[in-house]
Structures are given as C-alpha cells and as structure tokens.
Amino acid sequence: MSTTPIVECVPNVSEGRDEAVIRAIADQVETVDGVALLDVEPGAATNRTVITFAGPPEAVVEAAVRLARKAAELIDMTTHQGEHPRFGALDVCPLVPVSGITMEETVEYARELGRRLGEEVGLTVYLYEHAATRPERRNLAVVRQGEYEALPERLKDPEWRPDFGPAEFQPRSGATAVGARDFLAAFNVNLNTTSTRRANAIAFDVREKGRILREGDPLTGPIVRDEEGNPVWKPGSLKAVKAIGWYIEEYGICQVSMNLTDLSTTPIHVAFDETCERARDRGVRVTGSELVGLVPLRAMLDAGRYFLRKQKRSTGVSDRELVKIAVRSMGLDELAPFEPEKKIVEYALEARNPRKRLVDRTLRGFVEETASESPAPGGGSVAAAVGALGAALGAMVANLSSHKRGWDERWEEFSEVAERGKAHHDRLLALVDADTDAFDALMAAWRLPESGDAEKAAKEEAVQAAVLAAVEVPLSVMREALASMDVAAEMAEKGLPASVSDAGVAALCARAAVRAAGLNVRINLPQLTDEGRAEAIRREAAALEEEAERRETAVLARVDEALREQEA
Q1: Which of the chain's termini has less CB crowding within 10 Å, N or C?
Q2: CATH architecture classification, 356-567
C-alpha cells in the first residue's frame, strides 16, 4: 500500500432532488488530480446529498473548496425545504483521517479548509468536532441549533461570531460547519429473526446509550426514576456505538443497525462478536453482516488479525488474506458480494488511479517494463523488489513454523516474527515505486527553465531537493533490507527445519538488496552539493553494506550447518 497520507471528505449539500445540480457539484471533485469521488447519495425527502471523496490532504482540501464554490453558486437556501437539520448550502464538510495521518494533522487541514472557504468562497464558517476552537462548538447539533432560519439573529450574538468568513447573514448560502472527526462506520448485523422487538432488545444491549431501566420485567415494568423524576438509563456494553433494531423487507430479516463513531474505541470485529453474544443470550442467531458505505483498510486488517488470533494462527499474512478472513468471519458477503475495491477506501482510491504502480504489475510485466528502453524502473526499484522478496521469504518460514504440528504453543512467537517480516516487505514494496518516482522528479527538476538568475536559483534548489530524494530512497532500501535480515537469522536458527534453505535465500536477497541500493546511492551522491551531508550518507551506506555482509555470512553458516545435519 501507498505511504501517502489519505483523508476522506464527506460534504453534505442542501440539494437532494435536482440531479443536474447534484452532478454539477459532485463533478468538481474529479477536477483535482489524485482525488477520487467514491460515493454520491442523494435523498429526496431530506433534500440533501452526502458526497464522499478521498485522497492526499492538500488535494482533498482543494477539491472541497471547488465543490463549495459550485454549491454556493447553484443552491439557494431561501427556498430550501427538507426533513434533515441544515443551515447552509454546503451544510457540513468534515475531514476524516484514513491512513498515514493523525487526527491532529487532520485538524490543521480542516482549519485551513475553513479559512479558504471563508476567504475564497465567502462562506460563513464554524469549526466543529476535533477542529473546534471552543469547547461549546464541538457538538454539531449545538453549532447548527435553530438551523438556517435562526442564523439572522444568531449572527448578531458576539458569542456566535463565525470562525471564518462573513459575520453577517448570507441568505443564499447560509452557514457551513467544517470539522475533523473520526471515521464513522455504518455496520449492520443480520439476525435469523423477523421480530423487530427482539432486534431492538439486542441493539439496546450493545449500544452505549443502553435502555431505560425498569423494575421487574425489563420491557414492561415500571420505569426507574432518579430523585428529579428523570428516567434512569442502563448503559449498553459498547462505547461509541449507536444502534437500533429494524426489519428489512427486501431480505425478510431483522438487523441490528449500528453507527460505530470511533473505530479505535469499538472496532467492527468487537461490535460483531458482542452482538453475537447478546443475540445468543436471547435465543437469536447472527447470520452475517454488512457494511454500508466505505471503511478504512486498517479496520479490515484489524478484524482479520483478531479472528486469526482466536484460531491461534499466524497473523503475518498478506493484507488481501486478512481482508478475506474478516469478510468470511463476519459474513460480510451474506446479503451482497463484498468487493474490496469498492468498500475499502484505500483500494477504491487505487482502483480509480489511472497510473498503474510497478508493484501492481504481474511479475512478467515488471520484468518487461524493467527491460524496456525507459531508464526507470532501474537498479533502485529492482533492489527494493529483491529486498521485498527476501523479507517475504522470512515471513513465509515464520508462518509455516507457526503451523507446525507439535509446535502449537509457539504460534504467537512465530506469528510475531511473521508480522515483522510482512512489515519489512510492505515497506520495501512501497520503495519500489518510490525509487522510480524519485528518478522522475530528478529528471523534471533538471528540465526546469533557467533563463534568469531567479529561475537558475529556483532550479538549483529543486535539483538539490530531488538529488537528496534520489539518494534517500535507496538509502532507505538499504536500511530496511538490512533490518529484514533479523527475521532471516531467527528463522535459520529456530524456524521450521525443512525451510532452513528459504531462510538462507532470504538473507542472500537482503544482502543483494543492500549492495544494489548502495550502488544507487553512490551514483547519485556526487550531485549533492552539501558536502557534509554527502559524507555522512557515504559513511552510513558503507557501514550498512559491511553489516549486511557480516549478517549474511552468519545466516549462511547456520543454514550450511543445518543442511549438513540433514544430509548426515
């Protein structure tokens, strides 16, 4: 997977009936390179459309600004009517961290988005959730209280001065809430019952809010009240979960329909297993589940690892295998096929990317592309690929060892090694394309114009930045390939005896990757004008090569010893 930070943006616009307007607004997203439009869900009754897109944060912010500009142009709030709470043409516009980015970093992008919407589009903007500048503005319902109709008076109150944009009422556009929030997963668990009452009972068991406490019979008994006469609530078992039970006529079953508002607090697999337990207590069986909308890859990988651990099996398998385990374990394909390229945010982005990465080619395709007349991919990408193969072999030996008959009590030990091997080969795979990208960036820098002194200075700065990247990428390959040799060494020493030769090949590949990447460092280093930095890199590269040779020798000695014992 790419190491590029990815955020999701889920703007809600106050138009759900005019298809031409909705399409014109949504189309703005795909005018920005690198951003993928993932979903457009209009609602006629709510007169509201939820749009979902994702990509690198800077590009997503730009796409959101363009979408907002078009929404402000085409939507007139003076005539808007709908069932959903709203106070603006672009009503809400949250950013959601998906991968490679923290919530704190996402907040900064949300605030930048808010600033641009205020200054460039002329929208009245309030920041909410994690991006809020005041505690009382975290809750969207509070920010939007009174809706559009209350804005003229509310904006006169100094306490409700917007964070960005005009502090006067804008009749056409109203106001917009911009925030940073956790990923919200809409997750439904299927039941083998048609009883909405039973489905609701299970939902009340698991949801954070729980149910109203009653004396005696939990369904019909008198309501327990506090000293002030308010009903007493009994919390459910899952934090950050909202849930209800309902009947789906299309499928003839009931579901527990959940919103998981913080996947780090209650992941999908935890919600699924807990619902299974509570359903069993009530004589109901869970038959499967469904995800509505998209989900981050990490949520599926965590689920796959969770169910493998329950089986006492190694978790150091491929991402695709982890996703497959998660889908099967939770029955996510019971009602409809689960298509990872449509349901997982990162995969959906890749599927919409017109540029085919080297690592996504077939082996034959990668070899033939390397053999072509193009100077990239070259030795750096091949070095990273060889290193990835070595790390993968180390992970394979660990996975096989974890499943050896008689070694059952050691599965966690080998699973941990396999996960380390997998992490190494994932990072090395990312460096396959990173090396080619660095070469392309260097060539682009050399082609910059230099007609005047300012252009010459700008070109030199760009060239030096690109040279440094062209050195740092193969240097990273050296570091990662060397680190992967620890897995090879462990597996040569204590892994499955029948696979000791594979551990030896893993070490050979890693050593080859270190040496090959070292050549790429050396050929680019003379172009770096910072002599102090160049010398430090030169010394580090030499030390990495020396250490790789030492480790290879040690691993092969152990492999040779083990093979002689087997031959005796």
Answers
A1: C
A2: Up-down Bundle (1.20)
